[in-house]
């Protein structure tokens, strides 16, 4: 498990983490980037492969800490996951044979790391197996919202206990799998994370009576991620009715084995595209999907609103930064928000980000972390009830802490492109979803022509 800063855990002083001198751009970047596979798609298809009616193959999947944790968890639950040669630059493909729910297990201990997809998607799988499965993760994982999954499993007749038999509200806990879940109508409050809905929909077809999931409470965030879950389920033959808002009906039935190519991670394309704005340069991302459920497709509108020219031609997205970054208002940017906030801190006018209160339950409290780190560089950022206000200010050199959060680290890298002397703490934390980040970033900055001259 990786280290976290004291700010993350509220604990006593942690060992100092290495500082990475963020490359400063002395001119415009001019780069073409190919990003690794989508975390959200890889981990959804891995879960479905473990439940499928035969062996499946994932082509060009993500290889990162979050996918490795998912693979390890599925193996512990009895699935077989084997790396086989891939056909491109994305590393090995994966072949998966499903888990056997009938095979009992006792005391399997699953490490969720800091991966929301593992801590939310895997406990319902453990519920389908007979036996006990213990879940824990990184220190900060214990602060992430989990109560809804625990209550949902309990309501489904699957006991979940903490040490000493207490009822838990967070990690760590033990799922006492029954080997069979009846399902039916289940009411949850998914206002803290869309992953609660996705987690239950992914397994719903394997419940005896299927699942009618109903959300009651404040709005569910990150709805694009639920649309992704529904589309992925339909692609493997599961019948899902999402025609009524806040209700999802999954019919019981088989999950068909599949052979699936994973789209690249459009959220992780974000920091590279942001570099075009931060340096008034051009960044192209190849293989941009013509249609996708990934929230990262929003980059096309977000970056255009901030003054960039954005085109998609022959599957390549090209972003060219304008003379200034325009401040703007954005609602519900979900996991894109840290990258957007970094650009807002470099903008020439004020920006307001709304609809992201739930970011307080992400890898760290992202609203507090973004305000602290932008302001420590001389910026002017303020937390609101459901987001951030960021006003223009001259930034200076300093350290950006990453709080074990890959998107805080990449936000620091964006700031460092435009502000000389920025150091990012623990850049290796980008391995959560993109271990190649430091190398890819250096390659992108390396495209700056030596004749571009110094920026003002
Ligand atoms: O299901 C998914 O793959 C995700 C859903 C979202 O979670 P929240 O709804 O908690 O924001 C998103 O932020 C996260 O990065 C990935
Ligand atoms: C919120 C995120 O991750 P997780 O899947 O751990 O929730 C994220 O990647 O921005």
Automatic annotation (TrEMBL):
Residues 26-440 form the Enolpyruvate transferase domain. Keywords: Amino-acid biosynthesis, Aromatic amino acid biosynthesis, Cytoplasm, Transferase. One of its GO terms (molecular function) is 3-phosphoshikimate 1-carboxyvinyltransferase activity. Pathway: Metabolic intermediate biosynthesis; chorismate biosynthesis; chorismate from D-erythrose 4-phosphate and phosphoenolpyruvate: step 6/7. Phosphoenolpyruvate binds at residues 39, 116, 144, 195, 366, 407, 432. Coiled coil: none annotated. SUPFAM superfamilies: EPT/RTPC-like. It catalyses: 3-phosphoshikimate + phosphoenolpyruvate = 5-O-(1-carboxyvinyl)-3-phosphoshikimate + phosphate. The keyword Transferase applies. 3-phosphoshikimate binds at residues 39-40, 44, 193-195, 222, 335, 362. It is found in: Cytoplasm. The active site is at residue 335. Its main location: cytoplasm. It holds the Pfam family EPSP_synthase. Its EC number is 2.5.1.19. CDD domains: EPSP_synthase (cd01556). Catalyzes the transfer of the enolpyruvyl moiety of phosphoenolpyruvate (PEP) to the 5-hydroxyl of shikimate-3-phosphate (S3P) to produce enolpyruvyl shikimate-3-phosphate and inorganic phosphate. Monomer. NCBIfam families: aroA (TIGR01356). Belongs to the EPSP synthase family. This is 3-phosphoshikimate 1-carboxyvinyltransferase. It comes from Arthrobacter bambusae.
